[in-house]
Here is the input.
Amino acid sequence: MPNLIESSAFSFPKNQDRKNQDSILAPRRLDDGYLLAVADGVGSYPGGDIASKIAIEYLRKITSKEHLFNTEKVLSEIKDRIIQLSKKNESYLQAATTLTFAFINNDGLKVSHIGDCRVYIKEGERLKQLTKDHTQFQKLVDEKAFTKKYLEGTKARSILTTAISPNVEMKADSFFIPRAELPCESNIFNIYIMSDGAHHFWEKRPRFSPNTMNSISQFSNSFKRRIEKLSPIDDYSYVGLAINLT
Here is the structure.
C-alpha cells in the first residue's frame, strides 16, 4: 500500500454571485491506492452544477478499483443518473459535465478523462500534462487546420467536443502508466488535477519556486493566490496529491 504524504484541494465559483459548476473528489483511499477527481459542469445549460456533483458522488461510492477501471461502465452509469435527473425536471434536459479522475497505487497510474479538465504530474521542477483537452481548439490544432497562435482568443478553446451528456457522444480517454515509467523523486510521486478555470492560469506562467514545487500544500496556496490576484475567468478547482510509492 503506498503511503499518502500530502494532499490539498480547493474549488470556488468565479464569483460569489453564481453557483460553482465544478465538483471535486479529494484523494480517498480505494483498495490498495488513492482516487482523486475533478468534474466541471457545462455551465451553458441548467443543471451543470448538479451533473458534476452526480459524477463525483458516483466516484465517491465506488468500492473497488476493478469497477473504477471500467471507464465505459463508469461514464455510462453516470450518464444514466443525469438522464434520471432530466426526467424529474425537464429544465435539466441539456445537463452535462466533464470528468477527469486518476487512481494511483504501487502498480502505476490509471487516468480516465472526458472534457477539458487536466491531469499533470511533477517531473523535476516542472509539471507534465498527461491529458488532452476535448475541445474544438485542440481538435483544430491536431488536424493542423489552424495554429495555436491563430486560435488564441477565439471561442474554440471553450467549445467541448464531448462530455458526459444525454445528447452528445461520449469519447473518453483512458490509459495506464506503469510504476517504472512514473517520474519519482526518492519514490515520491506528485499528481495534480485542475479544471479549465484553474489550468488557464497555470499555463500562463507554468512555474513556481523549487520550494513551492516540492510541496503540495505550498503549491496549492500559491496557485490559489495567483488565480485570485489575476481575477478568475471561470470556476476554478484543483486537487493535488503527493504519495510514496514502493
